[in-house]
Amino acid sequence: MSVAAPPVTKERPRSAVRAPRPRRALLLLNAVSIALGIGLWWVLSVNGFQFPTPPEVAVRAWELLADGTLQADVLASLRRVLTGFLLGSLAAVAVGFLMGWYTAGRGLFEPWIQFFRTIPPLAMLPLVLVMLGIGETPKIFVIFLAAFLACVISTYQGVVDVDRTMIDAARVLGAKDAAIFLRVVVPASTPFILVGMRVGLGSAWATLVASELLAAQEGLGYRMQNAQLYYDLPTIFVGVIAIGLLGLFMDKLLQLAGGRLTRWQETR
Amino acid sequence: MSGPKILVRDVSKVFPPAGGGNGAFTALGGVSLEIADNEFVTVVGPSGCGKSTLLNILAGLETPSGGEALVDGKAVDGPGPERGVIFQQYALFPWLSVRENVEFGMRSTGVPKKERRERAEHFIRLVGLERFADALPKTLSGGMKQRCAIARAYAVNPSILLMDEPFGALDALTRVRLQEQLLQTWSSDRRTVLFITHDVDEAVFLAGRVIVMAARPGRIHDVIDVDLPYPRTEEVRLSPEFGKLRNEVWQAVYHQDH
Questions:
Q1: Which residue of chain B is at minimal alpha-carbon distance from A172?
Q2: Which domain of life is it from (chain B) (predicted)?
């Protein structure tokens, strides 16, 4: 035979599983780093710095837990941050889509968003306190603002960046505008929305604590502010650590949820 | 005998200059073309000859600046499921599995769930992806992605397939295999195909007729009939007749000055 058969190449899907990262080593290094940090803190606190030692802080944390103060503060703070964050994200997604999808939406919203983006939400607090009183509403409102502004641009960008060919593909498959929006634009911009939500969460959390420092009767920020008056350093430390851990925990949670929603993304 | 499946009459397309300056770009300057039902036509030409613009006009994704494009005697007005399009960059929906991608168009056109399932199953098998029906696009190779896109286009039962350099991003071996598979699929389930490529071999191997275009302005330079028998086997590809036709098309593509 003079004609060679075409080579039969075996087909296999490209492996979706990448080489496992050295996770164990990373976790070990994390643990070592944390231990070293606490060690350093301890060394500094017994060498003339005015820090409470780690055991002192642990004891105070235990006391605050035992009489229920810490739980109440955490709950109060979480309620505010979650309410503000969820409302802010929801509004951001809605407005972001309007801006990305309709020229009119973009034209109407953009100046206001650009304007308010340059104002730190906390700078709005005095005004908001005067307008809305000193209850829960002003605090939730500034958190809402922080989360909204952080998330809205990202959502908008996500909608604008949806691959043109993908929309064309949907159109030639017979999808009408509503279907294209729900079945192409929304899923395609999900990764952007999630990034926006993560930034928004950080921003909301930071704003919360500061807003509680100014006007609150309970909450982690209030507790620290109060402790400052009595030079109660261990309580301040407990507050700082609680804020850090809660923020970290919420971010991880969001990252986990996001990972599930965007599993389809190509990892480059 | 009815009229041609696709009728392009004196179609032109002028793009306004980018940035509002002067010097509009004439992508197509008065192209006329007739394609019969179930014909397989390929279009080759240098970049800028307007071959993709021509396809987009037939797909309804772009409107002509002048002239008219008719499908089944009706002027093209926007995209429609009777004209399937296959893009060079696959354009699969990455968040949907192979099966869900194939079902996408049928969901748009309101095919009931059970029938959707069955038809998707059928076309997935036709392109040989049955083992990967539930896989996400990111786990597929380029060739498999394009096969999925072909199944997706077939599933809405278009009478015309418009293919815009579908194998352009694939390696040479995969390309040859997909060309053969495409012809197999086409002969078992005939449609009218307009296939754009910049590869002369591919143009001759697939087509019953090769349209060679020229640039500035985009126009039809030459039309070459390929009277090689189907099915096109490897023997056909390596035959002297094929070689002669390839030379002819090559001359038409690369030596358009005279």
A1: B79
A2: Bacteria
Which residue of A9, A163, A263 is in closest CB contact with B173?
A9
CB-nearest to A265 from B60, B94, B144 is B94
Residue in chain B nearest A185 by alpha carbon? B93
Say what the pTM is: 0.79
How far apart (Å, rounded) are the C-alpha atoms in residues B31 and B51?
A: 10
Find the CB nearest B141 among A14, A187, A265.
A14
Both tokens assigned to A45: 């606190």
Inform me whether the C-beta atom of residue A10 falls under 8 Å from chain B C-beta atoms: no
What are the structure tokens assigned to A43, written together?
């060394």
How close is the nearest chain A Cα to the Cα of B251, in Å? 27
How many other β-carbons are positioned within 10 Å of the β-carbon of residue B154? Answer: 23
Which residue intervals of chain A are DSSP H helices? 23-45, 54-66, 69-101, 103-117, 125-132, 136-160, 164-172, 177-180, 186-214, 220-229, 233-261
CB contact under 8 A, A165 and B87: yes
Q: How many angstroms separate the CA of residue A169 from the nearest CA in chain B?
A: 6
Measured in degrees and rounded to the nearest 5, phi and psi for residue B5 equal -65, -50
Kindly determine whether residue B104 and residue A183, on different chains, have CB atoms separated by under 8 Å: yes
Q: So where are chain A's domains?
A: 59-64+71-261
Residue appearing with tokens 């070459």: B224
Closest-approach residue (CA) in chain B for A262 = B95
Which backbone phi and psi does B112 adopt, to 5 degrees?
-60, 155
Query: A83-136: per-residue pLDDT in tens?
Result: 999 999 999 999 999 998 888 989 999 999 989 888 888 888 888 888 888 788
Angle of helix A233-261 versus helix A69-101 axis, rounded to 10? 40
- Binning pLDDT at 50, 70 and 90, where does residue B148 land? very high
Cβ of A15 within 8 Å of Cβ of B139? The answer is: yes
Beta-carbon contacts of residue B39 (< 8 Å; ≥ 6 apart): B5, B192, B193, B208, B209
Note whether B197 and B42 are within 8 A (CB).
yes
Max CA pair span of chain B? 58
The answer to whether residue A66 neighbours chain B at the CB level (below 8 Å) is no
- Joined tokens for residue B199: 């590869």
DSSP class of residue B66 equals E
In the three-class reduction of DSSP (H, G, I as helix; E, B as strand; rest coil), residue B94 is classed as coil
